[in-house]
Specification:
The structure is a single chain. By secondary structure, this protein is an alpha/beta fold. It folds into 5 domains: 35 residues; 56 residues; 169 residues, 2-Layer Sandwich (Nucleotidyltransferase, domain 5), CATH 3.30.420; 62 residues, no CATH class; 84 residues, no CATH class. Helix content is 41%, strand content 17%. α15 runs antiparallel to α16 and α17 crosses α18. The N and C termini lie far apart (147 Å).
């Protein structure tokens, strides 16, 4: 590059000392065209490379541009970053550096998007254990071979930058409660404040300024853990900028390219492991320290967890005449005696509980999807007592996963007249003494070759009747010294008195 001091020397010799171009070129070791060019140069020359030098990337620019044009039509969450595009090029044989790919992607986006307006933000500083930020994001994964959009709850301690993420299939309030419970357990304590957007599950009403009317059930969560909820100003995401950046980073680090797991449990186990691994990175503000080292310092100042919060949302529902309640378009069974009655349904992230008469009368594993029937066959046993024919085609009993000996006995009995009623009697007895006793009794009957309801019931009673009481040991001090003798003549005497009357 030609520097200003050389231009100055050329111009001084030519303009002041009146040297010829040939003399200047000979003395300074320059070519005459170069001297002639800079004789009239006043400003310092600026050189711009017309096209960046990318010798290794040249053969792959077409492929890279094709990917960028294709992914520009995708939602932002599904577009690959420069790092992921670089890894994709490596898979097809690219041997060059990442910087070349990064510059190409940056130049391509500038041309495609045009100039951008830069916003200015105020840097924020947080004390250890002072604040945590929360947000949701929607990510694409494959669970059990089916592509799905999941909802990911993000937490980030503002001082140490320790993150925690957990995935759900819904974004409802019970998921918010469960996410907080998991996050506090992962972090080992509770911060003083948690900063939120104005989520409907958190904020009921936005008032003037920072005033908010928080959801009553959410305040129960905050009261249990004793943290202060803080809602951001609408459209002021910079107030929780760390979590806003984390959403994009986590999408790149964890969900690009598409991740595949058998179910949500395995995905969340993997996410927890990755959160610990990412904490080994350098802290962005504390040089020479990792995120995990700062987190260990902050963790000691978090408020200890006394007990986990039972995070459920409760609704009053009426049980149908088929003894079912409907939650999110899925139906769950309730004991038949509550059909037609109003009950309280508690919905948590993983469970559905039905409460009646101040007692939990039914508990089911929560399922997601639509139009699924989740039945406990024992809930319908009183109905079978009056309608034993329902045993053959009743939905709760068709796919009842009973032990194999019981299934064999059921198959034998249903081939006989009144066999369905006989099997119902066995089930009614098993409800009192337990299914294990019925299983053993059926095994004995099958081995003996006598498969009848009376034989199996007798065997169940024999297995479950209490053992005879142990004889009592009397102390020697109260033993009889003179034992009474049996005298049957006394009864004859009484009989004689009776005839006399």
């Amino acid at each position: 590059m030609f520097y200003m001091d050389m231009i100055y020397e050329i111009r001084r010799r030519y303009k002041v000392q009146k040297q010829s171009i040939s003399a200047i070129a000979r003395e300074m070791g320059l070519s005459r065209p170069t001297v002639r060019k800079h004789v009239e140069t006043v400003e310092e020359p600026k050189y711009e490379r017309a096209q960046p030098m990318r010798p290794q990337l040249g053969a792959y620019e077409g492929k890279l541009e094709q990917w960028l044009e294709k992914e520009a039509k995708f939602p932002r969450s599904r577009r690959r970053t420069a790092r992921r595009l670089f890894e994709g090029l490596q898979e097809v044989g690219y041997q060059g550096a990442y910087d070349s790919v990064q510059r190409f992607v940056k130049d391509w986006k500038l041309k495609a998007q045009g100039p951008r307006v830069t916003q200015v933000f105020v840097p924020l500083v947080f004390e250890p254990a002072d604040a945590c930020q929360f947000d949701w994001s929607h990510e694409h994964v494959e669970l059990g071979g089916v592509g799905q959009t999941i909802k990911v709850a993000h937490f980030r301690l503002a001082y140490s930058r320790q993150l925690f993420v957990v995935a759900y299939l819904r974004e409802t309030q019970e998921m918010v409660f469960d996410a907080h419970r998991r996050a506090f357990a992962f972090l080992g304590g509770v911060p003083n404040r948690i900063i939120y957007d104005n989520l409907k599950t958190v904020v009921d009403t936005i008032l003037v300024g920072k005033e908010r009317q928080f959801n009553r059930r959410f305040l129960t969560l905050a009261n249990h853990y004793l943290f202060e909820p803080v809602a951001c100003t609408p459209a002021a995401g910079w107030e929780k900028g760390q979590i806003e950046n984390q959403v994009g980073n986590v999408r790149e680090w964890l969900f690009t390219p598409l991740v595949r797991f058998a179910n949500l449990v395995e995905l969340n186990d993997w996410l927890a492991i990755r959160c610990r691994e990412l904490a080994q990175r350098k802290h962005p503000c504390h040089s020479g320290r990792t995120i995990n080292e700062c987190f260990q310092e902050e963790q000691r100042l978090l408020r200890p967890i006394v007990a986990p919060f039972d995070g459920y949302v409760e609704r009053m529902m009426r049980v149908s005449n088929t003894s079912l309640v409907c939650v999110d378009r899925n139906r769950y069974s309730v004991p038949a005696r509550f059909a037609g009655q109003a009950v309280s349904v508690r919905m948590s992230a993983n469970q559905i509980q039905v409460v009646a008469q101040a007692q939990v009368v039914a508990t089911h594993q929560r399922v997601f999807g639509r139009d699924q029937l989740i039945c406990d066959p024992w809930h319908y046993l009183p109905v079978l007592e009056k309608k034993p024919g329902a045993l053959r085609n009743g939905a709760p009993f068709v796919e009842w996963d009973l032990p194999l000996p019981i299934q064999a006995v059921r198959k034998c009995l249903l081939k006989r007249p009144q066999g369905d009623r006989a099997f119902v009697e066995l089930l009614l007895l098993a409800e009192k003494v337990g299914l294990d006793a019925l299983t053993v009794a059926c095994e004995c009957a099958l081995e003996a070759g006598t498969v009848t309801a009376p034989v199996i019931m007798n065997e169940m009673r024999r297995l479950t009747d209490p053992s005879p009481p142990t004889p009592l040991e009397w102390p020697d001090g109260i033993a009889l010294t003179l034992e009474p003798l049996a005298d049957c003549q006394r009864y004859d005497h009484l009989l004689g008195e009776t005839h006399a009357h």
